[in-house]
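Question thread 4412

I'm putting together a teaching handout and wanted feedback from people who do this every day. The idea is simple: show students a protein as raw sequence, then show them the structure tokens that encode its fold, then repeat with a second protein so they can compare. Below is the first pair exactly as I plan to print it.
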Amino acid sequence: MTMSKVGANAQRVDGRDKVMGKPIYGADRLLPHMAHALPITATVGKGRITAIDLQAAEAVKGVLVVLDYRTLDRLKPVVFSFAGGHAIQSLQPLQSAEVAYRGQAVALVVAETLEAAYEAAALVQITYASEPFDVEMGSAGREEVKQALAAPYFPDFVHGDPEAAVAGAPVILDEVYTTSPQHQNPMELLSVVAEWDGDHLTIQEGSQASQAIQGGLALQLDMPAENIRVISPYVGGGFGQRGSLSPHTTLAALAARKVGRPVKLTVPRSQVFHATSFRGANEHHIQIGATRDGRVTGALHLVRAQTSRFDLMPYTGEETTARMYAWPAFRGATTLVKLDTQTPGFMRAPMEMGSFFALESAMDELAIKLGLDPVALRLKNDAVADPITGKPFSSRRLKECLERGAARFGWERRSAAPGSMRDPDGTSIGWGVAAGAYPGYIGPALAEVRLQRGGKVVLSVGGHEMGQGIRTAIALVAASELGVDPEMIEIRIGDTAYPPQHTTAGAWGAATATMPVRDAARSIRRQLAALGTRQKGGPLQGLDPASLSLDDGWLAGPGGRQRVDDILRAAKIPGLDGEGRGDAPGLKPDALKQAAIGKISTAGPEFPEHVSFSFVAHFAEVRIDPRLPRPRVARFVTVVDCGRVISRRTAESQAYGGIVWGIGAALSESSEVDPRLGGFLNNNVAEYQIAVNADVRRCEVEFIDQEDPNFNGLGAKGLGEVVCVGAAAALANAVHHATGRRVRSLPIRMEDLLG
């Protein structure tokens, strides 16, 4: 039998189960006597509830109860996750008559059937006293705060005197770039099934953070965390939307306790746009100074980023732009703009998407000012050490990404002048390039692995499967170490009954989970080798345990081999257990303890001896009919430096997904707000335009695939986020090359190119 090893193009270990419909997602859970809950949301931008009439709703057949702020149980305070807590925001559901934003949950119907819940919800009558509100970055009533002062854990990034360096430069680029609010729209809706058994609560929910849900609910409900089990074996897409405790989970738990029955709550798609976090709007003021031969002298990246009135959602994209090029001087600073929405949060490549649209558009503009090729400008300013700390990079192969991408794309055939490349029918052709980076993060994790007779392996570790393929990466690492087929491995993740389930986000999931799995598996190998060399009369007796290899159920060494089952049988044990603890320089001593109570406790990108980032280069081709100037993506080439590739098939899938996200961000995705009404208006997948098959033509992906041993023992860095960093900028630069029009706001609309 040929075993799948690390780096193989192996099929997903859960692929067959998924296509056969075997995995159980949160909304698939069916329990006897289960009731259904449906939130009712506020229709004013801000204000106060003055009256609620439930009479007609409560008369609907099958309605069990209608809850509002007057009847819902009181909750203990919960803290916003980036203020050291567990929740997507500090504002709790149905706790007062105050309405902070349009779309906020203000009542909850619980009924025998979902149909009855919908019928009753339409009959609830709520009267409001409206108050002035602000939902746009330029609103007169906005409040602005300096992030470094209001949230000192998220400081500015400063090196040297960039203001003087830019002002004294022979060539200066000074522009402002903006991005719209955006929403994740994973296939799986926000859904939860809550079930009480006495004073014990079980939550079934697709989540990126089951431990955070457990910890947050324990605080809200004032009960021991060990009495709450959160099960999240699969997630139908996360993208940052499910990284903390959201209000719908709390509502389901309270409703189930109220009616004494299991309760399922599935948030309708239209409500999802207000029910949890989203990517906030932001504005980027980029200033770059350069010599006439193209050496940068300094840069400033000043950000205005949306947050809510009641929480400070930090914006840290300048942490990465600060490290992108060899800046002799740099300043990155954030001003938070408080608006009347729910608290923004993370959406794939959360801070870097907008930051690198701005930076890489600016670098393109600078190249044009200097008369340089955009690839050459980036290569000329490639950093050899971290500009902020002076520390070396754990590895940095951005140069190889750019050079390989340019060769594969055929960049040398590009005509530099905007509008100079055309098809015979007059269609304008634009070629654009952009680079990107994403911080290398790693978290604490504990892995427990058991090798049983017959070759079955049972493995549990902290992590969540959101479709990104973490199960496959884990299985390949364990299979490589234990010499078993990945199909013989049972993986238990996303369940608080197992080791701490640290939040899976920020492209740290595989890098965090695979190292303790490797170490636990190696512990089993050592134990097995010791048993085999000690057993009298066996073919391995007396051999050096370090000389033995494990493959396909055999322990083998020079001159002999023995079946693993025979070794275990002779030792009179059913199997062997191994444990591994993930660690990294820079993790706090109590990191695993913090993870066990649902707190985020990662290290990176700055470590004691180095800084760590993944890198990417994108090359894009667009075609634009001048009579109807809608950009069409014809070709996309992406080259990624993410260290060692653990699972090639899932890595390629992640990279293709990142390209699609970049296309959507550049050309269509925007959550529209109306200053007259508040909230998000296009709150459905018909009007919120995500990229579809027709928008994605020819995509090519390549990996540098060289280990980064300084980052972790496997040499693998994060991939899921970096693949969409810079992708939107490559398209924006291609649009400029095709048309001569520089669009500095996303998404790029047809009207931006008319006239």
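The second pair follows. I'd like the answer to focus on this one:
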Amino acid sequence: MRLGKFILAGWLAAMGLHAAEVAVTGRAIDENDARIGGVDITVTNAAGQSWHVTTDPAGGFTLRLPTEGQYLFSANPNGYLPIKNLSVEIAAPAQEVHLVLNRAKEVLQRIDVNAPPESVDIEQTQSERQLSGIQILDIPYPSTHSLREAMTLLPGLVEDPNGGLHFDGGRENQTNYLLDGFNISDPLTGQLNSTVSVESIHSIDYLSGRYSPEYGKGSAGVLQIKTETGDDAFRYSATNFIPGLSTQTGVHVSDWTPRVNFSGPIVKGRAWFADNLDADYNINIVPGLPSNEQRTSSLQLGNLMHAQVNVTPSNILYGDFLFNYLRAQEFGLGVFNPPSTTLDQRDRSWFVALKDQIYLGNGNLLEVGFAEMLNYFRLVPQGVGTYIITPNGKQGNYFEDSAQSSRRGQLLANLFLKPHHLAGTHQFKMGIDVDRIDYSQDTSRTGYDLYGVSGNLLRSVTFEGNGDLSRPSLEASSYITDHWQARSNLFFELGVRQDWDEILRHVEWSPRAAFSYAPFGPATRISGGFAIIYDPTIIQLFTRPLDQYTLSNIYAADGTLLRGNSLTLYTISNPNLQAPQFRNFSFGVDHDFPHRIRAGLALLRKTGGDGFSYINTLSAPILAPPDIANAYHASYIEQLFNLTNARHDEYDSAQVIVHQSLTGRYEWLASYTRSRARSSQVLDPSLEQTLLLGPYNSGPLPWDAPNRFLSWGYLPTPFKNWAVTYLLDARSGFPFSIQHDTGELIGFPDMNRFPSYFNLNFGVEWRLHIRKYRFAIRGSADNLTNHQNYTEVNNTLESPQFLTFYGSEGRHFTARLRWLGKE
């Protein structure tokens, strides 16, 4: 009987406790009511007990609290101002809580207000590196108006001497570039040619190694550019509206990079806009040329308009319009390329995008978007004289006159489903992406003459055939992914992606799996994953057989003609080429230390196969068969390049990153990357190339940098409103090849290296008030140690200047003036 009473009393107590439970639902939104997914929320009661929950992609969350009463809510999302200990009265039987998160904006009123310190997110299964818009504005990287240059602040990224961006050892066209969710890579080359104002950036997120199947092709990773949105307050600012001075090769007017930013409401509480206009009048100095030939100029204009309209509380419409214009005189000017050999470049592009985000209720969210991108590219030589190549430089006029246009139309749809519960919590997401690409060109090439060290003519090349061509393509993709919380400290990301394009006509399947585990509490995360990722099909590779071809006359050292009318031809004979495939393995450990220090170790291995490469199928020149001789007016076939899947790439890296957030906006970062990037086909033959490839083409890639140390920071001083900022970038020198004066490669490619690179930039910034307006003035010294960071080398064995290095900018000083609007 006593046992029965005891059981009854326990049951009644349990029922009482259960009855006292409160179901709390809510959502996280920004100041414009846009839903924010992936926000970590902590709820604490007076006894110190805490509960954790993360918002779903629709910004929603649900949790159960044991009793009604007073609770403290905290949220600490990257890119937004934190909510700390927000007191909320929870009442039975249910409660709804809305958390409004304000974006961290550089134009805030006080210098000590910034985004929250970065912390370990145990739900994050992807390998991610991020730059905030504030960091981009604070750090003195070279050419601080350039978003491309700002990206070099990301560990794992190197920039080659030609300005190419290489993420985790990949080629530039192996990265998937997104602007507010849409592809903005060049439809022809797959590279990032669009320019976006640095002051329009909310954040740059780089995903590497393992990432969700929702992101498209790109073995090097995904770069997401997220832009700022206006709010109900009118904001305006301007930067560098006064031309600056440079001390490089004497004091002179330097680059002028004015930027004007304006944002605010279209209809308060309903619609907002942010407009960012930027210009770049660039004076390029090339040390090593005569003083009257070492300067060239370019003008670049850009405007990005981003808008948001809340059609209804559950239907939000986003829009982007980006326009770019470039006119560059004497493009390509260099130590070995005097003004007559350069090109005038003209470039225009338009990008427009619309995205409709519809909340369907019950945690379901649908996104539908469309984007259109148009590019026009023009190259004009300085004249029609013969282009002459010598071991000591170029002469005459460049041989190419070209007009190119490309277009991409993109349609995408993403569906976020409400969480489902089975052996944990599952968050499903699925979507489609359809792209239509068109490319056309009208190119005319003349030819060039190649001379040896002694001044004798070695080769005379002419271009024949028609350079007027077009090539379309259609791409279609779909994916499904499951973000699975198996336990409170164990998460998985499982999914698969399907890709198809009109050129290869194969359906490719890309399975991806990743995990995140916090075995010792929320301060430590162990993560890793495996992914099969395909590279995009670059149209430019498939247009070479449709383009012009070359006929060459080859001469002996005494001037005797050895072979006349020798043909070099590009073909595609295999109708069943495969898509280039990479297998990525990654592993990482992240830990939060005291004093807001976060440290992480990341290991990455990428192995690529079936890469596209044009291979010379001839071991030696042959007499042209009658059909080839008649079709191309050729006597010999010197090189017959056929597109194959013969390329194999490898990249291995170990990376350590330490980051500390100090009070306010102050912070510092240090990273070291040990890596190796190699390929079986290092040098890619092209129609315009002058280097003759030998039997060996394997070795390190031209941007291989085995060691790189990167550190930057924005630090306080004892003086109010003063700060110091710095950038330190040190790495191994890039590799380069050796050749004969005939243009023939000697041995393996990239067996030599430039001297080590070392760059230290240091600046001082003063923020001041004049009446009701705020200003920021920064002076900085670039390459403070005056290290010789060469960009070019004489690599011709027979030249008297063999292994002479050129192109170091040396130490120089710059200034920046920013008007930050009203207090």
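Top answer:
Good format. For the second protein you could add a caption like this: The helical segments are 2-20, 133-138, 147-150, 539-542, 626-632. DSSP finds five helices and 51 strands in the chain.
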